[in-house]
Input
Amino acid sequence: MRLSIAIPAWEYNGQGVELLARSFIKIEKQNFKDFEVVLSDHSKDDEIKNFCKNWEKRIKIKYIRNKNKRGSSSANINNAIKNCSGEIIKILCQDDYLYNRFSLEETIKAFKKDTEWLVSAYYHTKDKINIFNLHIPCLSSFLYKQNTIGTHSCLSIRNEDPILFDENLLWFMDCEYYYRLLLKYGKPKILKTPTVIQLLWEGQVTNTLVTESLIRKELRYVNEKHGL
Output
């Protein structure tokens, strides 16, 4: 099976290229080679575009400048998903990166014929060196508002009319998306082998744009959307 790595990106206040460099190095070293990187770029400048151009001979990259709904993480990731051509779509946030050289291989091996979506275990890091807190995704009775699965960097989906993220959401964009996957396809395949490292840092979108007011507003929206 061919795999697409969907990466939503932006300039990240001057740190966008630095974040992608670590991720691309990890991607280049993968044992599994039948993949493309699909990068949707919300940047105002050309730094990430030029960075991707410099990497074109090392990994297969489909770069798309996305001028629509700048600042919406959901809209940018949806644009990446829409441009993926692989049978499997692996979501990867710009500031996260693959765990080791077997990450894509383990993902593909775990994707059976009846698997529609897969979530894998992952580690956290704060300094990009030391890892801690192995998180194994699990389901919750209140998945639409309680994110027990974790970052969408641990998610892979089958590329057959894929569900898109709700562009009205930021804080609940992950768990509400998982909830809709659960309603449509049933339980995910849970891969207990770690495939990703999530970077915890002050520049995360959830640390810079989320307020208590936003959370309350989004929760009302989710409840009304799903009749909960």
Remarks:
- The chain has seven helices and nine strands.
